[in-house]
Design goal:
Pfam families: DYW_deaminase, E_motif, Eplus_motif, PPR, PPR_1, PPR_2
Protein name: DYW domain-containing protein
Strand content: under 5%
GO biological process, one term: RNA modification
Largest sheet: 6 strands, mixed
Number of helices: 40
GO molecular function, one term: RNA binding
Oligomer: single chain
Family: Belongs to the PPR family. PCMP-H subfamily.
Length: about 750
């Protein structure tokens, strides 16, 4: 009957004003033994929102339950507001302030609520206020205060609270004991954590697991495993802790091997186990084991578990089975923001940026609010697609929700935006975000240095590197990739040598393939082939196809056919399916007029069944990314585009432009070669930009391959004829075309 009354707003005693203002309490009350089962408080178990909560509070007042010197009714309300997922911490605080002399239980509920919130510092503040008010904390107080110190990374105050624990003699309480270990471990104070553990006469699986978690999160996985092996009694949680430790340290194979040991020992996994195992499968590409986990989930009736479903989507996507991931995602009855993030992250992981953007658009259309993980995940897809308008929308969304994201203090999100703006061609916007950051991480400096290098602003990149080191940041291997790239794009051979040797001698870095690649490219483009070959011979790692490809590219610039043939042979031996190397060698032969060799290479490509990667250029107009292939006529405005191409060619010819046909791969009439060049993908994208945007608008295009010499020369002149700045990103760098000039100074 009570439930029926509750379901009808018109007859329910709860259907009263929801704007009740709590007031101070008197000390008259009904018998306290009557209160626990009294219907208003019992209704808390069915409460799902703040409106219903306020109605229950109103009913408590109307029935006189708030006049209770045991404070039971208010304690129950405050507990619900502070701790329940359907509660409201500010409302708990307003109730708290109505109590004249809150007892220990009420203080503990509020402290617990803040410890679980996004403001754990207030838990510590209320702990202090509690003691100032003359109340002594107990074994229910300390676990949540210590949890707050762990979340805040505040070991100093944690040690002071540890002193209170010892003074009050509650250090042997199992929950307090475990909380102390957790607090020290999460603050990196593993010596203190171990000391607390060793001194306790009561070591249970919970305290063992707390220390195992601490070792794992600090990278000491061998210590974690040793402690696990010493455990007299192990439960599934302790097995999970070791698996999680391996995963945190990217030891995915070890994590999966340990899980297999767990199965052999007949320890029944739980949901947390399977989530960790799915993560390890996703990051190691272990699709076979991932399929087994999927079967286990279905066999145990957990297929509807949203967290496991999200883990499966993530696993299938990152293991390359995008079709199965997409089917699972589409068939999910309920999708959380984590579900959308998993699908976006999976597409990004496999380089399917267009599909990632489409999922993001669907997410917005479904009125799902993106969180920080969503934005950090989608920005690389924006970057790689050159979708600047969408990137600006995301930036505006972040600014609009400033309290939520705190951009100037959020290093990960700011760094992603810097990278996005740099790769979408707006390097000055990237610099504005960098300059506005209150807290800069090494990743932020690296993103800005790499962005400046990519755009050819070499002096700015090198000055920023000096500023970074002067501010106390120690460069890592990624920093030096950015610096060496800057030297490479600027043709600064001497500076490149200086930074390369500084990396080795001053910072004790062993060069990686990326560092060698920058140096080989720099030396090769400068024509210093003897030095480049010596550096390759002295490499501490085996040169890969990219290293020999850099040398091959330099041979194209300098017409070194003999050396090109040697470099190409090395590439073919390492990467027999590398079509780009065959095409590059063909270009070199074509430029030298060796058409028989061009034909031989083309026959070899055909015999091997290789397909040349087609040149593809994209341009974003009105928030839509349009893609063009060479000679493409599939666009809905194809007729207008080719009319503009003809107009461009006429104006180029009148300006005295002579097409460079030396790299056309066919031995054909000169007129046909010129027509083939005229229909390159970047020319089509520029033509579309000219007919689709207002005069004076900057045109931004992205190309998947290196821009050819003919198109580079033509685009310089187009920028002058049409009075447009054209910003083009090719496979290697950015080109800013303006007034007939290019920012690369024809060095690329």
């Amino acid at each position: 009957m009570a439930m029926a009354a509750f379901s009808s707003p018109s007859s329910s005693p709860l259907a009263v004003s929801s704007t009740v203002v709590p007031h101070s309490l008197s000390v008259t009350d009904p018998p306290s033994q009557f209160l626990p089962n009294h219907s208003p408080l019992a209704l808390l178990s069915t409460c799902k929102d703040i409106r219903t909560l306020k109605q229950i509070h109103s009913l408590v007042i109307r029935t006189g339950l708030h006049h209770n010197n045991t404070q039971f009714a208010l304690t129950k309300l405050i507990e619900f507001c502070a701790v329940s997922p359907f509660g409201d911490l500010p409302y708990a605080l307003s109730l708290f302030h109505t109590v004249e002399n809150p007892d220990q239980r009420i203080w503990n509920h509020v402290i617990r609520g803040f410890a679980l919130s996004e403001s754990p510092v207030l838990a510590v503040e209320f702990y202090i206020r509690m003691m100032v008010a003359g109340l002594e904390p107990n074994n229910h107080t300390f676990p949540f205060v210590l949890k707050s110190c762990a979340k805040l990374g505040n070991a100093h105050e944690g040690k002071q609270i540890h002193g209170h624990v010892l003074k009050l003699g509650v250090d042997n309480d199992p929950f307090v004991h475990t909380s102390l270990i957790n607090m020290y471990a999460q603050n990196g104070e593993l010596g203190y954590a171990r000391s607390v553990f060793d001194k306790s006469p009561k070591r249970d699986p919970i305290s063992y697991t707390a220390l195992i978690n601490g070792y794992g999160s600090s990278g000491l996985v061998d210590e974690a495993r040793k402690l696990f092996d010493e455990m007299p009694v192990r439960d599934v949680v302790s097995w999970n802790a070791v698996i999680a430790g391996y995963i945190q340290n990217r030891l995915y194979e070890e994590a999966l091997a340990f899980f297999e040991d767990m199965v052999r020992m007949r320890v029944t996994p739980n949901v947390s186990t399977m989530l960790s195992v799915l993560s390890a499968c996703a990051n190691s590409g272990s699709l076979e084991l991932g399929n087994w986990v999927h079967s286990w989930i279905e066999d145990h009736g957990l297929g509807s578990n949203l967290r496991l479903a999200n883990g499966l989507v993530d696993m299938y996507a990152k293991c390359g089975d995008l079709e199965r991931a997409k089917n699972m995602f589409d068939n999910m009855e309920t999708k959380s923001v984590v579900s959308w993030n998993a699908m976006i992250g999976g597409y990004n992981h496999m380089g399917c940026y267009k599909e990632a953007l489409e999922i993001f658009r669907r997410m917005l259309e479904s009125n799902v609010d993106p969180n920080e993980v969503t934005l950090v995940s989608i920005l690389p897809a924006v970057s790689n697609s050159g979708a600047l308008t969408l990137g600006k929308w995301i930036h505006a969304h972040i600014d609009k929700n400033m309290n939520k994201f705190q951009l100037t203090r959020n290093s990960a999100l700011s760094t992603s935006l810097i990278d996005m703006y740099a790769k979408c061609g707006d390097i000055m916007a990237a610099k504005r975000i960098f300059d506005s950051m209150e807290i800069k991480s090494l990743a932020s400096w690296n993103a800005m240095i790499s962005g400046l290098a990519m755009h050819g602003f070499v002096d700015m990149a090198l000055k920023l590197f000096s500023r970074m080191t002067n501010e106390g940041f120690v460069p890592d291997d990624i920093t030096f990739v950015g610096i060496l790239s800057a030297c490479n794009h600027g043709g600064f051979v001497e500076l490149g040598r200086k930074y390369f040797f500084s990396m080795v001698e001053d910072y004790n870095f062993t060069p990686k393939l990326q560092h060698y690649g920058c140096m080989i490219d720099l030396l090769g483009k400068a024509g210093l082939f003897d030095e480049a070959e010596i550096l390759i011979d002295d490499m501490v790692v085996n040169p890969d196809g990219a290293i020999w490809g850099s040398l091959l590219g330099a041979c194209r610039l300098h017409g070194r056919v003999d050396l090109a043939e040697m470099a190409a042979k090395r590439v073919f031996a390492l990467e027999p399916e590398n079509t780009g190397a065959y095409v590059l060698l063909s270009n070199i032969y074509a430029k030298a007029g060796k058409w028989d060799d061009v034909a031989r290479i083309r026959t070899r490509i055909n015999d091997r069944g290789l397909e040349k990667v087609p040149g593809c250029s994209s341009i974003e107009v009105d928030s839509v990314v349009h893609e063009f292939l060479v000679g493409d006529k599939t666009h809905s405005q194809s007729d207008e585009i080719y009319e503009m191409v003809d107009e461009i060619d006429d104006l180029l010819e009148k300006s005295g432009f002579v097409p460079d046909t030396s790299e056309v791969l066919y031995d054909m009439e000169e007129e046909w070669k010129q027509e083939a060049l005229s229909h390159h993908s970047e020319k089509l994208a520029i033509a579309f930009g000219l007919i689709s945007t207002k005069p004076g608008t900057t045109i931004r295009i992205v190309k998947n391959l290196r821009v050819c010499g003919n198109c580079h020369s033509a685009t310089k002149l187009i920028s002058k004829i049409f009075n447009r700045e054209i910003i083009a990103r090719d496979r290697n760098r950015f080109h800013h075309f303006k007034d007939g000039l290019c920012s690369c100074n024809d060095y690329w």
